[in-house]
Design a protein that fits this description.
By secondary structure, this protein is mainly α. The termini are far apart. 39% of the residues are buried.
Amino acid sequence: MDQEIEKISKKLMKELDEDRYRHTQGVMYTSAALAMRYDADLKKALLAGLLHDCAKCIPGHTKIKMCEKYNLEISEIERKNPSLLHAKLGAYLAKDKYDIEDEEILMAIRSHTTGRPGMSLLEKIVYIADYMEPGRKELPNMMDVRHLAFEDIDKCLYRILRDSLVYLKAQDMPIDQTTEETYQYYNELYSKY
């Protein structure tokens, strides 16, 4: 394994609980598999997958305080559900604490929860890997998603966005505006799927 990845892995092992660390490893390796399939930068995929949840185990109230301290914007929905802040706070920490300077990696970390309109290939890879890594709870359409991920990354992304919104609405959960905007963007592009 690459020395930088090994060093960050050891650091993360102390920062995350056992389940989150195992999930992080799953996302890292799933991101690598997707990067190989779509001819994306393998090391960037490994790093973004490894660090995507680096802020996940920070308590909610602390996430809010840290975002305020680092001048990271907090929406009303994020204030009510601070778990959503782990992506933008994670991107900040990846740069500040783990010395990641590559904007593409930082953006993949930042957008892995809500997505965003016009995602790069790396962003799509990490978003999809986070959703479907082997240790993830089996969702009703998981087998289809896993097949699609290696057949057509855009169809897969659209399917996950659509399924996620259906789930959030069925559970009567608040929907982050960026998630809604991301879905609308890809719905216009891929609704024929």
